[in-house]
């Protein structure tokens, strides 16, 4: 299954915070759908590494990162976090742009593939 999610977070202008919130949203979907084997991809190497390593810094994103790590520690799920170069992530860009217009975009496998064409 392929799932793409785009949400608007009002007032967020910092790209680092936007990436952290996107990862938190992805983790929330894993929980709400009771998924067991998941690959979460993002183009922020900093965020992916912080989540992989469990590093919480005293920065603007510290509370959100802490929340992500707490949720992950409570799950018995196989989640792999991957960095995808922005240049190879045009699908995510389209979903994000659409979310700016609609405030929320959630697409599953068959919808996602047709929507991108």
Automatic annotation (TrEMBL):
**Where does the record place the RNase H type-1 domain?**
10-99
Single Gene Ontology MF annotation: RNA-DNA hybrid ribonuclease activity
Q: Which Pfam families match?
A: RVT_3
- Mind telling me what this protein is named? RNase H type-1 domain-containing protein
Source organism of this protein record: Linum trigynum
């Amino acid at each position: 299954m392929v799932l793409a999610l785009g949400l608007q977070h009002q007032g967020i202008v910092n790209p680092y915070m936007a990436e952290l919130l996107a990862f938190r949203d992805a983790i929330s979907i894993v929980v709400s759908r009771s998924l067991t084997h998941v690959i979460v991809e993002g183009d922020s190497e900093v965020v992916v590494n912080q989540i992989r390593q469990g590093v919480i810094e005293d920065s603007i994103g510290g509370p959100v990162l802490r929340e992500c790590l707490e949720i992950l520690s409570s799950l018995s799920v196989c989640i792999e976090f991957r960095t995808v170069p922005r240049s190879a992530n045009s699908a995510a860009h389209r979903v994000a742009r659409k979310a700016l217009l609609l405030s929320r975009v959630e697409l599953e496998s068959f919808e996602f593939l047709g929507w991108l064409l």
